[in-house]
Amino acid sequence: MCHVQTTKPIGLAEDSQHVLTTILLHSSGDRIESEMMLPSKAENQRNPMQALGSALTYARRYALLAIYGLASDDDDGQNSAPGVATAQRPRPLPASIAVTAEQPTEFLHPQRKASIVERLRVSASKVQILQDFKSEFNISSDSVAPSHILLPAHADFIESCLAN
């Protein structure tokens, strides 16, 4: 698995905005791609290249965290937010979706995911299966969506529930 990030200007030189494109590539040929518009102007920045560089630095970091599904230690945000202790950190992601150097994450093939989502949609046990899935993988959101089904382990669990 690897990632690539590129930028491209949109518009005229003096009024151009830039788009950051992040692509996550897998050896299977699968890919996830996202685009993020960078801010056109930054307050209190005299040099437009410094403003662009600063915006690009943050955008690249946040785009990578998002595409890999990782949480961050938001040092800048926590330090600038009034009344928030710097020792507070976001909860880490469950081990089921953490990406580590020792054990790269293999994402679920889109066709398998589509098949599972369709089978769930028509299942009479859908509510119970999703509740069990939420508990099994420590999902903290109020409801489970197809975007939560990311890994082969998730698919294996749901398919075993659908078989029962």
Poorly predicted residue ranges: 84-104
Count, helices: 5
The biggest beta sheet is recorded as: 3 strands, antiparallel
How would you describe the shape?
elongated
Beta-strand content:
15-25%
Distance between the termini: 34 Å
Based on CA atoms alone, the radius of gyration comes out at 20 Å
The class by helix and strand makeup works out as alpha+beta
Instruction: Report the average pLDDT across residues.
Output: 76
Q: Order of SSEs, N→C?
A: EEEHHHHH
| Strand ordering within the main sheet | 1-2-3
Helix content: 25-40%
Q: What is the β-strand count?
A: 3
Task: List the SSEs and their pairings.
Blueprint: E1 2-10, E2 17-25, E3 31-37, H1 48-68, H2 75-80, H3 110-122, H4 126-136, H5 152-163
Antiparallel strand pairs: 1-2, 2-3
Helix pairs in contact: 3-5
What does this structure look like?
- The chain has helices at residues 48-68, 75-80, 110-122, 126-136, 152-163, and strands at 2-10, 17-25, 31-37.
- It is of the alpha+beta class.
- A three-stranded antiparallel sheet has the order 1-2-3, covered by helices on one side.
- Helix 3 runs parallel beside helix 5.
- Mean pLDDT is 76; it is low at 84-104.
